[in-house]
C-alpha cells in the first residue's frame, strides 16, 4: 500500500462562512486519499516517511469553473471593446486558428502548463468548434493529470462563416466526442453551446437530447451583457434562462452558467429550482464593461456560485486574481447599498476551492477526501508571525505563482 504522512499548516473551507485550520498537523495519505489526521504520529505509523512542510501553509488547489483554452493566446487583447465587438474583432478570428492542429497543440500545452503553475488543478473549459483540436485539448490535459471537463463549442448561426457549423454535423461530432471521452477518469466531456444567440433552436434541442441520453453536464453563458440579453429576447421572444430550460440545457444535468449579471426574478427562481450553478467571472465582466454580478443578492436568494477566470476576456489565469476582484466589486455594490455586505475572504476562498461541488467531494483536508493541495511558501511576503488566516489573506492579495512550490492532486504531485 502506498501510505505516506504529510505535515504542515492546513487551511480549508467546509462552508461559505468559516475557514478551518489544522496547525502543525499530520495527514495520513493512503492511495491518494486522506485516511487519518493527527497532531502526534501514533506508534503504529512511526516507520512511515514524513514529508514535513514545516511552517508553510497548505491549501486545496483552485477550481476554475469557466474559461476558454483557445483564447489563451489573446489574453489582454481587445480590452477596450464590449462583448459583441470583442467577439467579432478578436475572438472568432483567434478561435479559427484552431482548425490547425499544430497551433492547437502548441497553445493548449502552454495553457495547461500555466493553469498548473497558478495552482488551478480542476477546470471546466471551452474549446472551439473543431473536433480534432478538441481531442488534442483532452489529450494535453490528461497528460498533465488535471481533472477537467472539456467542451467542443457548438455554434450554427450569427457568427462568421468560417466558424459556422452545419447543425447535424455539430451534433454528430459532439456525440462522437462524448462516446470517446465519457469514460475518461480525468478529463470528461461537457455539452457546450457557445450561447443562445449563436445557436439555432434545432441545435439547442439536439444538444439537450445528447445531455440527457448520456447524462453529460452542460456549460454556457447567460445574461452577460445588456445588448446580448436584448438580442436573445429578439431572437427567441423569450426569457434567456427559459431558452436553455426548454431545451433541457438548464439543470436537467449538472449545469454551469457563466456571468448571470442581468437575471430576471423568474431567471433566478429557475436557476434555484434547477440547481444551476452561477459562475462569477469578475475580471471579464469589468474588462468588457459588462457589469457586476450581484453576488450577495444571488447568495441571499440561495444560488450556488463558483468562480471563473474567463480567459481570455479575463486577463489573468490565476483564480486568486478573480477572488480579489470579486471582493473589490462587492465593495462597490456595498458602497451604495449597505444591506448588501461585501464578500469575505472566507466566502471567496470557499468558492475558489470547493467549485460548487461540480467535481464532487473535494476541497477539504478531511478523512475520505482525496489529498489535493498547494504548498505555499510565503516567506518572501513578509513576517510569518501572523495568524494562518492573515497569511492566507496576504497570499491571496499579494502572492503569485512563485509562492506555490508544490501541487498535489489525488495524492500525486502534478508538474509542468
Ligand atoms: Zn466565457
From TrEMBL:
Amidohydrolase-related domain segment(s): 57-413
Cofactor(s) in the UniProt record: Zn(2+)
Identification of the protein by name: Guanine deaminase
Annotated Pfam families: Amidohydro_1 (PF01979)
GO CC annotation: cytosol
InterPro entries: Amidohydro-rel (IPR006680), Metal-dep_hydrolase_composite (IPR011059), Metal_Hydrolase (IPR032466), Metallo-dep_hydrolases (IPR051607)
Keywords annotated in UniProt: Hydrolase, Metal-binding, Zinc
Keyword Metal-binding attributed: yes
GO MF annotations in UniProt: guanine deaminase activity; zinc ion binding
Protein's GO biological process: guanine catabolic process
Gene3D superfamilies linked to this entry: Metal-dependent hydrolases (3.20.20.140), Urease, subunit C, domain 1 (2.30.40.10)
Amino acid at each position: 500500500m502506498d501510505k505516506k504522512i504529510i505535515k504542515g499548516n492546513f487551511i480549508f473551507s467546509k462552508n461559505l462562512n468559516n475557514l478551518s485550520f489544522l496547525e502543525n498537523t499530520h495527514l495520513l495519505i493512503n492511495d491518494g486519499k486522506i485516511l487519518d489526521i493527527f497532531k502526534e504520529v501514533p506508534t503504529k505509523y512511526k516507520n512511515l516517511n514524513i514529508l514535513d512542510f514545516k511552517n508553510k501553509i497548505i491549501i486545496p488547489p483552485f477550481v476554475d469553473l469557466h474559461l476558454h483554452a483557445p483564447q489563451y493566446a489573446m489574453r489582454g487583447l481587445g480590452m477596450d471593446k464590449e462583448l459583441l465587438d470583442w467577439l467579432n474583432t478578436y475572438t472568432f478570428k483567434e478561435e479559427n486558428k484552431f482548425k490547425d492542429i499544430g497551433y492547437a497543440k502548441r497553445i493548449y500545452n502552454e495553457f495547461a502548463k500555466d493553469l498548473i503553475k497558478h495552482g488551478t488543478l480542476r477546470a471546466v473549459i471551452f474549446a472551439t468548434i473543431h473536433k480534432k483540436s478538441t481531442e488534442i485539448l483532452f489529450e494535453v490535459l490528461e497528460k498533465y493529470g488535471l481533472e477537467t471537463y472539456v467542451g467542443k463549442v457548438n455554434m450554427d448561426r450569427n457568427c462568421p462563416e468560417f466558424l459556422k457549423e452545419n447543425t447535424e454535423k455539430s451534433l454528430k461530432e459532439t456525440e462522437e466526442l462524448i462516446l470517446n471521452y465519457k469514460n475518461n477518469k480525468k478529463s470528461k466531456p461537457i455539452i457546450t453551446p457557445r450561447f443562445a444567440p449563436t445557436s439555432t433552436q434545432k441545435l439547442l434541442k439536439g444538444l439537450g437530447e445528447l445531455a440527457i441520453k448520456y447524462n453529460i453536464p452542460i456549460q454556457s453563458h447567460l445574461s452577460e451583457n445588456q445588448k446580448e440579453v436584448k438580442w436573445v429576447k429578439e431572437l427567441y421572444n423569450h426569457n434567456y434562462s427559459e431558452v436553455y430550460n426548454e431545451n433541457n440545457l438548464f439543470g436537467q444535468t449538472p449545469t454551469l452558467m457563466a456571468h448571470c449579471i442581468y437575471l430576471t426574478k423568474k431567471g433566478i427562481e429557475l436557476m434555484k429550482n434547477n440547481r444551476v450553478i452561477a459562475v462569477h467571472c469578475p475580471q471579464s465582466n469589468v474588462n468588457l464593461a459588462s457589469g457586476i454580478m450581484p453576488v450577495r443578492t444571488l447568495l441571499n436568494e440561495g444560488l450556488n456560485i463558483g468562480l471563473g477566470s474567463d480567459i481570455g476576456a479575463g486577463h489573468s489565469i490565476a483564480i486568486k486574481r478573480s477572488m480579489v476582484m470579486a471582493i473589490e466589486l462587492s465593495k462597490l455594490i456595498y458602497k451604495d447599498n449597505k444591506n448588501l455586505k461585501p464578500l469575505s475572504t472566507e466566502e471567496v476562498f470557499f468558492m475558489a476551492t470547493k467549485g460548487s461541488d461540480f467535481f464532487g467531494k473535494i476541497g477539504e483536508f478531511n478523512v475520505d477526501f482525496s489529498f489535493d493541495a498547494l504548498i505555499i511558501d510565503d516567506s518572501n511576503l513578509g513576517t510569518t508571525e501572523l495568524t494562518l488566516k492573515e497569511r492566507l489573506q496576504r497570499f491571496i492579495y499579494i502572492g503569485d505563482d512563485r509562492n506555490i512550490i508544490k501541487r498535489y492532486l489525488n495524492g500525486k504531485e502534478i508538474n509542468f
